[in-house]
Structure formats: structure tokens, C-alpha cells
Amino acid sequence: MKQSRRKPTRREKPMQDLAIPKSNYLITPKTDTQADYMVSIEKSSVVFSTGCAGTGKTYVAIAKACEHLETGKVKQIILTRPLQDSEEDKLGILPGEIGDKFGPYIAPMLQLMYQFLGRSKVESYIKAGKITGVPLALLRGLTFDNCFIVASEMQNSTPSTMKLMLTRLGKYTTLVIDGDIKQKDIRGTSGIEDAQSKLQDLKGIEFVQFELEDIVRSDIVRFILERYET
Fold first, then answer.
1. For residue 116, what is the enclosing H or E element?
2. CA distances from 120 to 64, 75, 127, 195 (A)
3. In this structure, which topology does domain 18-228 adopt according to CATH?
4. How many Å apart are CA 122 and CA 66, to the nearest integer?
5. Dihedral through CA 42, CA 67, CA 51, CA 55, nearest 10?
6. Domain spans in the chain, listed from the N-terminal domain onward
7. What is the pLDDT of residues 154-211, one digit of tens each?
8. Which residues, including other chains, have CB under 8 Å from residue 68's CB and lie 6 or more apart?
9. If we measure between CA atoms, which residue out of 213, 225, 192, 217 comes closest to residue 59?
10. Confidence at residue 208, expressed as pLDDT on a 0 to 100 scale
11. Beta carbons of 135 and 109 less than 8 angstroms apart
12. pLDDT value of position 101
């Protein structure tokens, strides 16, 4: 396993484009780190992507998940993330059943899926169980085979919950974990930080680090973050 350490640069020529089948979307990596990220997802079982906002960490992960589902590489997409400031938050803080309560937390990921696949297809996949959201608190006892799991905002996971999620992986499953340690809301060590210290040299796991130079959302976001980090 290697960690991406090369200084990121914006790409000037298309490379390793991602075409989502049955969709009009063709995604071209805009930085070398994004290109490395796409390659890592293809060749590794677990990929950690860390770094500042606006670098495309979740965008690329969701795009790859849609590609894998549409090409039949996996049978199901699993979406998860910590609740508010920790995965131990009570789901009772919102009205409705579990799906209704957890829905707002995975809404940003679903919005990307609507963009890539269309709302009607995504909604039909949700009804068929091909796309589902699972709160971290309910992972215990589950095993995920033939799945693509996207775990977002995982800087707010605890080490114990990160371990729980990592040990849910079954056969032919890809897990992509993203987060920004500088936006951590929980006390103590983040699950991402703990995993980095324990899993750096483990085969099948890769860590991709995004930097300020990788921000593609807008120049103003990069300028704002540069001021906050100086």
C-alpha cells in the first residue's frame, strides 16, 4: 500500500475518465489526486480519502458507486455517515421511522445520485433495495457482500465505530471512507485518525490525502480555507 504524497496539480488533459453507463455523465479528474483516488478505488477494498472541503471526495466516491452498480460489479450501494456530532446520537431526535430520520443525513449523497442517474431511477433503486442508507449505530451484526459502501463525514466517527464498520466487509465489497479531520466535532481521537495509525501498511487499504490545491468546487472556497489555515 502506498499513500499519495505527490503534490497535487490541476489536470490540463483528460485522463482516466469515468463514464457512468446509461447516463450522460463523463467525469474527468481535475487534479492528479482525484485521478489517483479513482485508481485506488478500482484496485483496493478500502480507500480512505481525507482533506479539505471542495476537493471532490464524496463526489468521486458516489460516481464510482453508481458506475459499479450500473455495470453489475455490485448488487447494492450502502450509504452511511455519523449523526450530527457522533454516531451515538439518538435517532429519536427526528420524527418518523428510521428511514425518515436518517434520510436528512444522507441527502447530500442522494442528491449526487440524482445528478448522475436521474431521480426516477434512484427512487426505483431505493424501493428495490439496491440503494439504501444504514446508520452507523445499526451496523452491528451485518455483513455486506457485493456492495459498494460510501461512508461520508467520517471524521466524526469514533475508533470503535470505525472498527465496527471495517469488519462488516464481506466478499466483493468496496468501502470508501471520506472525511476532513479539521472539521472534527467529536472529542478525542477520530476513527479516521485511529485507522491511519493502525492500517497504513495493510494490503488492500489505501489512503489518499487531498490538499488545498485540490479544491475544485470554486476558487473562493480555496481562498477562504487558505485564510482559515494561516
1. helix 98-117
2. 19, 18, 11, 37
3. Rossmann fold (3.40.50)
4. 10
5. 130
6. 18-228
7. 999 999 999 999 999 999 999 999 999 988 888 889 999 999 999 988 999 999 999 8
8. 74, 77, 148, 174
9. 217
10. 96
11. no
12. 57
- Global pTM? 0.83
CA 211, CA 131: separation in Å to the nearest integer?
A: 31
Distance, C-alpha 185 to centroid of its chain? 18
Residue type, 117: L
CA distance 136 to 102: 10
How many CB atoms neighbour CB 91 within 10 A?
16
> What does the alpha-carbon distance between residue 52 and residue 215 come to, in Å, rounded to a whole number?
8
User: Cell digits for 100?
Assistant: 425518515
Which three three-digit cell numbers place residue 92?
429519536
Which among 221, 219, 198, 200 has a CA at the least distance from the CA of 4? 200
Cell of 120: 426516477
**Residue given cell 476513527 in the structure block:** 191
Q: Is 121 helix (H, G, I), strand (E, B) or coil?
A: helix
Q: What is the distance between the alpha carbons of residues 33 and 49, in angstroms, rounded to a whole number?
A: 10
Q: Helix (H, G, I), strand (E, B), or coil: what is residue 193?
A: helix
Measured between alpha carbons, how far is 23 from 182 in angstroms, rounded to an integer? 35
Compute how many other C-beta atoms are within 10 angstroms of the C-beta atom of residue 6.
8
What is the structure's pLDDT at 23? 74
Residue with cell 463514464: 19
